[in-house]
């Protein structure tokens, strides 16, 4: 069962290792937040990473948090995940979630998956799969407009 809309953001606890910066739910309050789940073995995920970097640069008041979700034993190689983070220039916080603690807290099953929270920490949109990033555009515009108002 996926998180329901208007649900409060779960805690981001139990990450195996943080890259770039560790974040907590409390630190994210007051800004729109996009949590994206991805995996090094997911081709679609890698295709979406440059778009996320562009979003990070173009929307400075949107906080991005990546959660690497292993889909196989091979995906739990922390060094391989770190290499991918460097290769794709992911400069926003990246949680490596080898034990699926964050994955379980978000009730997430898919990669790529995107969870958009408003400045009050409430889930406003979630999408997963091939068209997930394009489905995010309108809800993101709405949440950003509310934040600026």
TrEMBL record:
Pfam families: AhpC-TSA (PF00578). InterPro entries: AhpC/TSA, Thioredoxin-like_sf, Thioredoxin_domain, Thioredoxin_ResA/DsbE_sf. Keywords: Disulfide bond, Isomerase. One of its GO terms (molecular function) is oxidoreductase activity. Residues 3-145 form the Thioredoxin domain. It comes from the Bacteria. This is Thiol-disulfide isomerase or thioredoxin.
